[in-house]
Structure formats: C-alpha cells, structure tokens
Amino acid sequence: QGKQKKARKYAVMKRMISLRDERIKEKDRLKAPVKKKEDPSVIKEREVPQHPSCLFFQYNTQLGPPYHILVDTNFINFSIKAKLDLVQSMMDCLYAKCIPCITDCVMGEIEKLGQKYRVALRIAKDPRFERLPCMHKGTYADDCLVQRVTQHKCYIVATVDKELKRRIRKIPGVPIMYISRHR
C-alpha cells in the first residue's frame, strides 16, 4: 500500500492589490521615493581607503632605526613580571637603537591602576621614554594607540593584549612586539 500522489495546485497565493493601483484612494497610495541630493563632503561607503605612500609594495619604508616603539600598559606590567629591562630587551630584539614612546592615555591608565603598580609607573616616567601628547577626547589607551598608528606608520606597537593585537593586525604595515616565554 503506497502513498497516494496529490496533484499540486498552481496559483494558490492570495492576490494582493499593489499600493500603486488606481482603485486605491490618493491619500493611501504609496508615495514615490524622493531622491536626495548627494553631499560631496560626506564620505562614500563604497570608497576604499587609499594605502599610504610609505607602503611601497608591501614594505613600510618609514620604519627604520632608531625604532619608535609605542608601549602599552600591559607590556610594561609583563616586562616587570618577566624581570626584563624594557629598553635593553627591545634593543636585543631589534638589534638597533629603540626609543620607547608612551602616550598620555597609557600614562593615565597606569596612574589609575593605583599603588600596586607603582613600579610600572616609575618605569613609564623613565627619561629614556618619549612622551607623546594626546589631543583626543577620552582616555581609552587602545583606541589612542590604534588611532596614532593608523595616522603615522612609523611606530612599532608593543603590547601583550590579544584584542589590541587583533585590531592592529588589520592595519597594514604596522609591526607588533610582544612578550612570550620571558623574552
């Protein structure tokens, strides 16, 4: 005993009147979309950002000794845990002179951490560190570092934060320095 085949019914869908139909009253009709004039100052969504001229082919020509290294808060803390001299270990890594740079946001973040991280604050106030002033609102250090690196491709970013590393990898031509296995 097999199943009985049912014939399919065609055009079962309910018929609907279009909102532009003449039978519908004028006030209930669908209005034709009004085209807005395009503002030339607004950035177009389809526009792809132009790669900077320093990225000739895929090599960043602005990077060169002495290297300017943007230091993040957790990089300083991890260097203390690993008992590394920050400037000396950077020079050992790159085989060249390094200038560690620290932004006002990172400095503020270290100060907010309190008394427990006073060693990190003392390292950050080292005269070998170059201070970079911030001109933006807010004190979120990750956004500050990403914004600075996007504008100027002359920095190496030193961080241990996974989320910040993920964000910086999306920016072409920016190398990342991190601490792993006490190195």
TrEMBL record:
Annotated InterPro entries: Fcf1/UTP23 (IPR006984), Fcf1_PIN (IPR037503), PIN-like_dom_sf (IPR029060), PIN_dom (IPR002716)
Localization of this protein: Nucleus, Nucleolus
Keyword Cell inner membrane included in the entry's annotation: no
Keywords: Nucleus, Ribosome biogenesis, rRNA processing
Every PIN domain range: 67-166
UniProt cross-references to Pfam families, sorted A to Z: Fcf1 (PF04900)
Top-rank taxon, per record: Eukaryota
GO cellular component, one term: small-subunit processome
GO terms under biological process: ribosomal small subunit biogenesis; rRNA processing
Cell inner membrane as UniProt keyword: no
Quaternary structure note: Part of the small subunit (SSU) processome, composed of more than 70 proteins and the RNA chaperone small nucleolar RNA (snoRNA) U3.
Function description: Part of the small subunit (SSU) processome, first precursor of the small eukaryotic ribosomal subunit. During the assembly of the SSU processome in the nucleolus, many ribosome biogenesis factors, an RNA chaperone and ribosomal proteins associate with the nascent pre-rRNA and work in concert to generate RNA folding, modifications, rearrangements and cleavage as well as targeted degradation of pre-ribosomal RNA by the RNA exosome.
Family under the similarity heading: Belongs to the UTP23/FCF1 family. FCF1 subfamily.
Protein name per UniProt: rRNA-processing protein FCF1 homolog
The species this protein was found in: Sitta europaea
